[in-house]
Amino acid sequence: MNGLLVYKLSGSGNDFVFVDGRLTPASGWKPEAIRQICDRRAGVGADGFGVLEPGSGRGRVRFHFFNNDGNRAPMCGNGSLCATRMARWLEMVPNNEMVLETDAGEVRTRFLEGPEERSEFKLAAISELSELQIEPAAGEDSFHFLTVAVPHLVVLVDDVTAVPLPERGRELRFHASLAPDGANVNFVSRGPAGWAMRTYERGVEAETFACATGAVSCAAVLCGLGKIDTLPWQVRSASGLTLTVNGLLSNGKLEEPSLIGESRLVFRAHLGT
User: Fold this and answer.
1) For tag attachment on the chain, is the N or C end more exposed, with fewer CB atoms within 10 Å?
2) φ, ψ at 70 (rounded to 5°)
3) In the prediction, which pLDDT does 272 show?
4) pTM of the predicted model, to two decimals?
5) Residue 135, class by beta-carbon neighbours within 10 Å (0-12 exposed, 13-18 middle, 19+ buried)?
6) Angle 244-245-250 from CA coordinates, rounded to 5°
7) Contact (CB, 8 A) for 96 and 110
8) What residues are paired with 47 via a beta bridge?
9) Counting beta carbons within 10 angstroms of the beta carbon of residue 140, is it exposed (0 to 12), middle (13 to 18) or buried (19 or more)?
10) Active site residue 38
């Protein structure tokens, strides 16, 4: 059968289209083509687009990631979980453990066997936290900025379900204190059922169902505020699925963080002729 072979994956509700870069290298992809594939009416529909190519050595995979607007991004947490699943499916690595070579550096990952189709990534370090002085809206408590592969603003709120996320998320994403690049905006709160988060994601420019690096960012901030005193820590994403953050907790600081989340292969298909 002729046509482009694509793979659709879900990372806790965030969806991604992947292609095998050995057949269609990243250098051949233009922003308009990526936007068309990610379009939910005229294309497959996705929050992001990934190209997997052979890495620099055995057990290594070069992971190129693009937001659905066609622009490159340094890395994506849920995208990395799905890239791990995809690399194993395509037999680009000899076993379930690998190193993804991304624009943000190396990310160690592994695919977890079992019916749940989950993967794990580990990060060597995250940036220091900085508290920002931003005028709070109703129900907002504090604002912290940090970089976990990509920039994140973590907003501690009374109730994530009450946040007018499309409007407030966009306002904060472009806040002057985050210029010039802006940041993903993660709202997090604790309720009777535990911790929950919602994310307004730059590049997508809308709420997404989950954000893996955002979950790590929330964990780092909550550790720093003394609201987490033991790991692993779980948080419910907007999809209803749980992300699990682990690592070392030292004097209120999260070190060597890792995250486990869904990396489910939804379907594969041929596009065009």
Assistant:
1) N
2) 95, -5
3) 80
4) 0.93
5) exposed
6) 150
7) yes
8) none
9) middle
10) no
Query: According to the model, what pLDDT value does residue 82 have?
Result: 98
How much of the chain is helix, strand and coil, in % rounded to 5? 20, 45, 35
Enumerate residue ranges in the chain where pLDDT < 50: 1
pLDDT in tens, 33-76: 999 999 999 999 999 999 999 999 999 999 999 999 999 999 99
Residue 82 annotated as catalytic:
no
d(CA 245, CA 52): 25
Helix axes 77-89, 212-224, angle to 10 degrees: 130
Select which of 38, 82, 211, 223 is catalytic: 211
Residue with tokens 């907002």: 140
Phi/psi of residue 92, nearest 5 degrees: -85, -10
Domains along the sequence of the chain with CATH = 4-124+263-271 (3.10.310.10), 130-260 (3.10.310.10)
